Amino acid sequence: DAGVIQSPRHEVTEMGQEVTLRCKPISGHNSLFWYRQTMMRGLELLIYFNNNVPIDDSGMPEDRFSAKMPNASFSTLKIQPSEPRDSAVYFCASSLVSEQYFGPGTRLTVT
Amino acid sequence: GESVGLHLPTLSVQEGDNSIINCAYSNSASDYFIWYKQESGKGPQFIIDIRSNMDKRQGQRVTVLLNKTVKHLSLQIAATQPGDSAVYFCAENINNYGQNFVFGPGTRLSVLP
Known about the structure:
The complex is a heterodimer. Chain A is mostly beta strands. Chain A is built from no helices and 11 strands. In chain A, strand 9 (88-95) and strand 10 (100-102) form a beta hairpin. Chains A and B meet through strand 4, strand 5, strand 9 and strand 10 of A and strand 4 and strand 9 of B.
């Protein structure tokens, strides 16, 4: 298996633009997680899905952030409009039981 | 991936020595713990886990110790190698489904030649 796949790996955008991050979990995994990592806050859970259903989105910072999982093999995290403080590395992870497998991350820079 | 930052605790060890990385967790109800390793430019990678009904678990060159009385977790790495240089995170989970983890701030391990 190729592991968790994220795209793009790097994204640079201007403040106010819409940003969409994509994730393909490991085939057969039933849970998917979106994390954000910054120097100031470390690794934070934003939202997770179980069997494509959002279970806990309490970590989503505000209404500008939204996440979807239309099927078992694809999820998106959207930021609209983006702001400079959204600059971070965004990780997607998937799991079957408890161990989470992380993707390589998307480094987002909002200028 | 960015491995967090300027204010991370750092542990420097000589190659071949043993390393001990410590973690204080926050919730006495946490029942499952995982140690992750994050190398520069990569996502966190599972190392070893332990449930709250155990106080010690061993893997290959790694041992995790759990002290529930003081809410403390440690990761011991035997015969530390240059490839062990990374940021190490402990993560705690408080529900039985093992889904929602809270990650610690991380410790940067630097292996000296």
